[in-house]
Amino acid sequence: MLAAPPPEGPPLPGLFIAGTILGLLLGYGLGLTHAIWRRARSDYIKTKALVPVMRSAKWAAWRSMVKRGAVVGAVVVAIVWVAISSDPPSGRS
After folding, report:
1. Angle formed at CA 59 by CA 56 and CA 62, multiple of 5 degrees
2. Which of 66, 62, 64, 84 is nearest to 74 (CA)?
3. What's the alpha-carbon Rg for the chain, to the nearest Å?
């Protein structure tokens, strides 16, 4: 008589390998995402703490620019005023 073939169960080794690979990929992706989030959060906190310092530096640069512009403007006005108010040179020698 012919013997009956052994019963086939679910493909456990294949499911185990597929589950392991899926779990490793999922863990890697979540770990990478978490690392990126932590770095972004750290950068945000540092930048937020530096905002008052950056504001004061911006206003200091603005005041310096206005002062220099005022000095240059005064020099230009003085040169133009002297050029306009002076007598033109005569051509006689």
Report:
1. 155
2. 66
3. 40
pLDDT above 90 (res 14): no
Residue 44: CB atoms within 10 A of its CB come to 10
pTM above 0.90, yes or no: no
Distance CA 21, CA 28 (A): 11
| H-helix or E-strand spanning residue 78 | helix 12-85
Span 71-89, pLDDT tens digits: 999 999 999 998 888 776 6
Minimal CA–CA distance to 73: which of 62, 63, 65?
65
Residue from 36, 59, 40 nearest 48 by CA: 40
- Round to whole Å and give the CA distance between 79 and 86: 11
Residue pLDDT, tens place only, 23-42: 999 999 999 999 999 999 99
